[in-house]
Amino acid sequence: MKKAPTQVSGRGRTAGFTLLELMIAITVLTIGISIAVPSFNDMTRRHRLTTQTNSLMSALAIARSEAVKRGTPVTVCPVAANNPDDCSTNSNWAATGWLILSDVRTPLGRFNVDATAEPNTNDQILQRVAPASEQKIRVVNAEVSSLTYRPDGMVQLPAGTRTTTFVLSPEVCRNPDGSRRVEVIAAGRVSFKKAACPT
Hints:
With 199 residues, this protein is of the alpha+beta class. Helix content is 26%, strand content 27%. The protein contains 1 helix and 10 strands; from the N terminus they run αββββββββββ.
C-alpha cells in the first residue's frame, strides 16, 4: 500500500528578502536619491532667491511709503562693513545687509547725526534687513550704492538715469532664468523679472 505524499508546511520557512531582491531594492533606492537630491537643491535655491527678491522689493516699498508719510527723504543702502549704523559706498548689497533710514541731514545716502541738534533733525534708522549672503544670494547694483526716495515718492537717481537695476542670483546659478532683476524707475515704481545667470 502506497503512502500519501507528505505535505511540507510553509510555516517553517523564514520570511525575508533574498540577496537578489535586496540588491534590486538598493539599486532602485540609489537611483531615486540621485534624482531627488539635485531637484531638492534647485528648489531650495529658487526659494531663497524668491525670498530675497521679495525682501528687497519690500524694503524699497517701505522706504517709498515712509518718505511720503514723513515728508522727508528716506534711503535704502547696504550696511558699511566697519560700522553697522552707516551706509556702505560699494555696489555689493548682499554681504552686510541693508539699512532703511530717514535721511534728513546731508549728504544723502549716509547716516548723519549731530548730537547738539534736535532729534527730529537727525537721520534715523527705521529698519535693518539681514544680509542676503546668509541665504547664499548675491545682490549687485553697479549703478548706485544707495537709493533715496523723495517725499513725492520719486527716487533720486544719478543724472541722466531713468532706471536702476539690482541683479540677484544664487552662489550656484543655473540657467534658464537662474537670476532675478529688480528694476526701479525714476517715478519710484519697482518691478522684477526672471533673467539668465550673470556672466
